[in-house]
Specification:
By secondary structure, the chain is α+β, with helices and mostly antiparallel strands. 37% of the residues lie in helices and 28% in strands. The chain has one domain (6-135): Jelly Rolls (Sandwich). It is built from 5 helices and 8 strands; from the N terminus they run ααββββββαββαα. Strand 4 (63-67) and strand 5 (72-75) form a beta hairpin. Helix 1 crosses helix 2. The longest helix has 16 residues, at 120-135.
Length: 137
């Protein structure tokens, strides 16, 4: 059963950094492919060296991302994770585990790429975000 109404999903996604350059109409399309996923504290979301099959947005809770070199970071509400791996089309480079009971929005890579193939404005918006992100590093 869905915890979020469609409009709540759209409003949430408009607040997520990776979609910050998307217009409302574009976010509505992204919301249509996003699936809610409840994960319990301690549950693995994905492991290093698995195929990268989606990106995730944290709606509620906290997720620990542990890279293969031992670096860890925690991500909470409004953060995304797993997206770079799908853009690289490589195996996962980290393990993601729920630190607390968490509600995520999952966007499968095939659905995302299908959406991007027909929506150049979303592609442009994602590139703007990525360029801004990497210029800040």
């Amino acid at each position: 059963m869905s915890e979020l109404a469609r409009i709540e999903t759209v409003v949430f996604l408009q607040s997520v950094d990776i979609f910050s350059y998307c217009k409302a109409e574009e976010v509505l399309r992204i919301a249509a492919i996003a699936q809610e996923r409840m994960v319990a504290a301690g549950e693995k979301i994905y492991s290093a060296n698995e195929p990268a099959e989606g990106l995730f947005c944290v709606v509620r809770g906290s997720v620990k991302i542990e890279s293969s070199n031992g670096e860890t970071k925690n991500v909470g509400p409004l953060a995304t994770f797993g997206g770079i791996d799908i853009l690289r089309s490589r195996l996962r480079t980290a393990t993601a585990t729920a630190e607390t009971d968490s509600l995520l929005l999952a966007i499968e890579s095939d659905d995302l790429f299908d959406l991007l193939s027909n929506n150049i404005e979303i592609v442009k918006a994602l590139f703007r975000h990525l360029i801004e992100r990497f210029q800040g590093e």
